[in-house]
Amino acid sequence: MTPQDIRAAVIEELENIAPEADASAVPGDADLREELDIDSMDVLNFVTALHKRLKVDIPDRDQPKLLTIDGAVAYLQEKLAARTG
Amino acid sequence: MEWEVITKARRGDEAVPNLESYDKARAEFSWEAARAALDGLPGGGLNIAYEAVDRHVAKGRGDKLALRWLSKTGERRDFTYANLAAESSRFAEVLRRLDVGQGHRVFSLMGRLPELYIAALGTLKNGSVFAPLFSAFGPDPVRQRMELGDATTLVTTPSLYRKKVKPWRHELPDLRNVLLVGDEPPVEDTIDLATAMAECDGSMPCAAMEPDEMALLHFTSGTTGKPKGAIHVHEAVVAHHATGRFALDLHPEDVFWCTADPGWVTGTSYGIVSPLTNGVTMIVDEAEFDAERWYAILRDEKVTVWYTAPTAIRMLMKVGPELPQQYDLSRLRFMASVGEPLNPEAVVWSQEAFGRPFHDNWWQTETGGIMIANYAAEPVKPGSMGRPLPGIEAAIVTHDDGGAPEVVDAPMTPGELALRPGWPSMFRGYLHNEARYRKSFAGGWYLTGDLAMRDADGYFWFVGRADDVIKSAGHLIGPFEVESALLEHPAVAEAGVIGVPDEMMGEAVKAFVALKPGYEADEKLRKELLGHARKRLGAAVAPRAIDFRDVLPRTRSGKIMRRLLKARELGLPEGDTSTLESGA
């Protein structure tokens, strides 16, 4: 998957959680919880959805790394690379 | 499954628990004596804010650290009792200059910023009524509560104001002042709080109130209709103080962290009032839940007493027991939980992970303070909410609609949890809804709406709600409020909202909707409805899931049968369906 594909997946899952928000308009380094008015349970559901969709393990303690779009893309990219490599 | 009772031994130089023996404390307790533990204003009268801050200053404890605020970005701000006394006086003077008087309602809508705490204390100092709102509420719940509460003044941030209030601000006839917190350029029709406070010198004295004058207004949700505004009076401080000593074991040398947001009653009674009247240092974290951050706060701030909620505890469990062991949490002496029943697994887990159990306790918006608790010096039965506090009489009762309650004495028999009225923090009314208030009492009991059992040792066990109110992540959510928001969408013909079991949140809000003709029940519309509800209600109240149904079960009189929706969803027996409309 290219970083663009991963970004698209991240944005799609965010919009599944918070369909009222325009996740694609959120700056890459902004805290998703504030930008999208999502709460801790939404974050948990978002991380679970990415885990299912991309088949990567995301330990709970890594959750804070996925709280920005850039952070999530970088994290997932690394995880996917480690898996194929 | 039977869980082993957890007994505890006091360690080394640990403080002696305020409640050393349950039976002795109950026998010796009187509310008169509890009142004497507070000071009252020098010239007479009572005020929660005086007991919380000013009296410590008057007694030479003004230099003690009262509040340490941790920002999301790692900034730290400290306030001594003297600082809080001065800042809250400034805030009170701001209100006075704006002609906000005694009894007028001042609402807050913001995250856990220092100004929130100053506004709460300053509002009380001015004799006005403080009504905190949860900042994650959407515009609908915010407006509804402010309308119901006759808000004269709102304290909020520029961004929350723009997102949630500005569009309808002028439709609220009583709302005269909007005070904004933050360093943004002036916003039209609002007052910059920092500028207004800078013009005040902090010398305004605390208003002398009568014990039964309104101080706090907390909103809670019912099954039908609008949220209810539970009225609490200045005298409630007697219970805030005493229950903090007994159920949270607060000692003046404690560093106390209550993780609750003041937008909910816990975050006010035990996130502001009780720790301050007890003279402790309290920690306020602006950020949301984050396991590593939380453990670091417990370690770095040397927290001794920690009060949190089952959802957070279950999230910590999910991260695992290894993580806390990497932090030096040796200062932690007492841990308590509230919001919904703490499952026995979580109590046992905490014993393994921290070497100490969480102590579950029970209370609700209407009771104003902790009513039933597990205590530092007493054995903990995992899964039980504990025993009634000194001064509190609790019972399990059964009653037919309108009939007088009968006390159930047989152990482990489910019934409604009832309390004998008369404790100081009992609510004194639902604002503008006297009939509903009166309905909460029968035969000399306050009926809590919670179903519970009592065992032979006097420990209480939560069973469920007596009504359709949903308990999600420790918060009560009224199904009607959620259904109403869904019905505002043009595609929705009918909506029924229930709580479904959720591993993390206790219950999660789930909606069932039937569509109007011409609308397709597809994924696109499901998401649109979800987004619509979240936009109106906010993430904390909106449904997490929506299912489509051709028709919803209704009674012949037209009421949606949520109970039946729930039974069908969970595969439970459908119970009495004699009033069900045919074909549903």
Automatic annotation (TrEMBL), chain A:
Residues 4-80 form the Carrier domain. It holds the Pfam family PP-binding. This is Acyl carrier protein. It comes from Ferruginivarius sediminum.
TrEMBL record, chain B:
This is acetate--CoA ligase. One of its GO terms (cellular component) is cytosol. Its EC number is 6.2.1.1. It comes from Ferruginivarius sediminum. Keywords: Acetylation, ATP-binding, Ligase, Nucleotide-binding. Residues 56-431 form the AMP-dependent synthetase/ligase domain. The keyword ATP-binding applies. One of its GO terms (molecular function) is ATP binding. It comes from the Bacteria.
